[in-house]
Amino acid sequence: MSETRFVVEPGGRLTGRIRVPGDKSISHRSIMFGSLADGVTEVSGFLEGEDCLATLNAFRAMGVRIDGPAAGRVTIHGVGLHGLKPPAGPLDMGNSGTSMRLMSGILSGQAFDTVLTGDASLSKRPMKRVTAPLAQMGARIETTERGTAPLHIRGASGLHGIDYVLPMASAQVKSCLLLAGLYASGTTRVTEPAPTRDHTERMLEGFGYPLVREGERTFSVGGGHRLGATAIDVPADISSAAFFLVGASIAPGSDLTLEHVGINPTRTGVIDILRLMGADIEVQNPRTVGGEPVADLRVRAAPLRGIRIPEALVPLAIDEFPVLFVAAACAAGETVLTGAEELRAKESDRIQVMADGLVAMGIDARPTADGIVIQGGAFARGAEIATHHDHRIAMSFTIAGLRGAGTHVIRDAGFVDTSFPGFVELARTAGIDVRAERSA
Ligand code: S3P
User: Fold this and answer.
1) Domain 24-233 classified CATH 3.65.10.10?
2) For 153-204, how does the pLDDT look when each residue is reduced to its tens digit (9 = 90+)?
3) Distance from the Cα of residue 287 to its chain's centroid
4) In testing the pocket of ligand 1, which one of 319, 348, 350 has its CB within 8 Å of the most ligand atoms?
5) End-to-end CA distance of the chain
6) For residue range 288-304, what is the model confidence (pLDDT) as tens digits?
């Protein structure tokens, strides 16, 4: 099988104005809600990455007419909550945990059986966190003995609401159960240990579905209402912007503006953490677009210092840690992360895989059970980086190249297409010397 590698030369600075692709979490949900709504939903700014296309193709396979995507525009002809049809075969979720976990909630409420499969990385990721509470609601789902995909989901299970306290801070688990709750009798009530991204809650409200909020961490829905189609303008993904927030912070002489970035407060931990480290980030022109806060972010190079990362910020920056570790490697002094064991269950074990890459580049990075300790300093050499099928590892080490000490090679980098199609071109436009090579 051919492999895409990134070759990154050291140096460079980031300047100008760029817009990164659409938000992955909101794009997934726009397809799910649009498909299950009554009426036609128009989406703009949709992320045409492989993860969101896996969700889109799954709904197409269940009989939903979806036009596009073309230049970020998608038109979804909703079939209503009970209008999906049995797919002809298994639904392939590719590399996408969000697709698999949220879809398992929706599919548990259908009248027909389905099978969800995934790639090598997704097939290793824990699914019990959704299948166990769904079983409490009456769902019948078979997994492997390890609790992993493929998931065989039986239809016509007759779901009932439960009151569930999540054992971990996970927007995917919360969203899965709320979506199953649309099909359940009675009330489905979820409480999370700490606030996580709230796009599902916002979108339920945007589609006119009654949602009850009790404080900041408890949400409930009752079954039997309907979703009304609406228009969705997907902002640029702060998780993709994060690579450039770090890049412009660590590359001397940088002055970069990221346009139209979603700054939902459940997603902005990366800005808070970088500011605590001394970053110079200005939030310009804040506005609300389709129920989500959006702004332009101007970031200029600044000397960073190591910090102890507040644990309350962990769920609010959960996808940004790989690149934050690069920031820590370039900061003066020690950075300590705790309370982040969830990072070991992402597309790769992001604590171990990042530590291995940073060590290969000459940084003192020591993994702990629930975090990492990084001594900031200078990269000593270029290295060959293994990404373990993880898009964010590939992009984080591309950013590290800005302060690199030699050419480095990032193996298996094609996975960036799951969340950030066009990454190499945009990174080059902004000022990073990176090229993609295909090897046999
Ligand atoms: C997501 C939630 C997060 C995040 C993932 C997208 C979502 O996962 O890591 O990339 O869209 O709900 P967890 O909720 O499992 O932490």
Assistant:
1) yes
2) 999 889 999 999 999 999 999 999 999 999 999 999 999 999 999 999 999 9
3) 22
4) 319
5) 7
6) 998 899 999 999 999 99
Does the beta carbon of 96 sit less than 6 angstroms from any atom of ligand 1? no
Q: Is the CB of 268 under 6 A from ligand 1?
A: no
Domain residue ranges in the chain: 3-22+235-439, 24-233
Residue ranges of alpha helices (H) inside 228-317 are 238-250, 269-276
Rounded to the nearest angstrom, the distance between the alpha carbon of 176 and the centre of ligand 1 is: 11
Q: pLDDT at residue 264 above 70?
A: yes
Ligand 1, from 318, 348, 395, 419: best to mutate by most atoms within 8 Å of Cβ?
A: 318
- Name, in order, each residue with C-beta under 8 angstroms of 119's C-beta and a sequence gap of 6 or more: 94, 95, 389
The CATH classification of domain 3-22+235-439, taken from the options 3.30.40.10, 3.30.1330.60, 3.65.10.10, 3.40.50.620? 3.65.10.10
Q: Encoding tokens for residue 163?
A: 């009151």
Instruction: Say which of 237, 319, 412, 417 is annotated catalytic.
Output: 319
